């Protein structure tokens, strides 16, 4: 089960880059690694879709829903980088000297899109937030989330919405520590979905 979570963007969202564990879970620190590893956050481009697709699969495995992933690299290229994109993305990248044993330098990402609240107006929805396990605990996840918040504010949004699995206590605690509100717990809202054959039936006149 997942919980709906919201963060009021009018309240201060501290952009500290190296402060807290990554919101997708924590891993034991590698004693040989630097706590404050160099990294950069930048807008995703179409050339990043291969790595984003890879990390989407990794995230789905972490969340124990790998069988649900249908999106391909080609889907990302078409849906995120066409004339009217369905989503936007940012990636976290490390220098060559910190690349993974497989040679990856793109080690985290966030996907987001703009939405609207009939109560408060413009909003931004964060679909995914992920950092590879060996790079967690270095402030990269916080930096990604802070960037989405900054982009939302720049677009005139006043809230950041997202979901978190109910068993993922490290993530839930992290989000709450950033001033987010558990909408499921506080207001009783549940995240609903209609898909596949049910969506086809619903669309019938």
TrEMBL record:
UniProt keyword annotation of Kinase present: no
Keyword terms of this UniProt record: Acyltransferase, Transferase
GO-annotated biological processes: polyamine metabolic process
Record has Acyltransferase as a keyword: yes
Domain N-acetyltransferase: 39-197
Name of this chain's protein: Spermidine/spermine N1-acetyltransferase family member 2a
Species, as recorded: Gasterosteus aculeatus
Pfam families xref list: Acetyltransf_1 (PF00583)
Family statement drawn from the similarity comment of this UniProt entry: Belongs to the acetyltransferase family.
Record region (Disordered): 1-38
Molecular function per GO: N-acetyltransferase activity
InterPro entries: Acyl_CoA_acyltransferase (IPR016181), Diverse_Substrate_AcTransf (IPR051016), GNAT_dom (IPR000182)
């Amino acid at each position: 089960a997942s919980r709906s979570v919201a963060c009021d963007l009018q309240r201060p969202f501290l952009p500290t880059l190296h402060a807290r564990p990554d919101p997708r879970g924590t891993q034991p620190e590698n004693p040989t690694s630097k706590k404050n590893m160099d990294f950069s956050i930048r807008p995703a481009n179409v050339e990043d879709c291969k790595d984003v697709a890879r990390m989407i699969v990794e995230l789905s495995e972490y969340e124990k829903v790998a069988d649900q992933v249908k999106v391909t690299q080609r889907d990302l290229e078409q849906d995120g980088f066409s004339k009217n994109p369905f989503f936007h993305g940012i990636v976290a990248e490390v220098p060559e000297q910190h690349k993974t044993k497989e040679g990856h330098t793109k080690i985290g990402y966030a996907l987001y899109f703009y939405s609207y609240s009939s109560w408060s107006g413009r909003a931004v929805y964060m679909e995914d937030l992920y950092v590879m396990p060996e790079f967690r605990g270095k402030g990269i996840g916080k930096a990604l989330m802070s960037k989405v918040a900054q982009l939302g504010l720049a677009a005139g949004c006043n809230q950041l919405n997202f979901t978190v699995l109910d068993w993922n206590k490290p993530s839930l605690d992290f989000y709450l520590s950033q001033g987010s509100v558990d909408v499921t717990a506080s207001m009783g809202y549940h995240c609903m979905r209609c898909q596949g054959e049910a969506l086809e039936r619903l669309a019938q006149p």
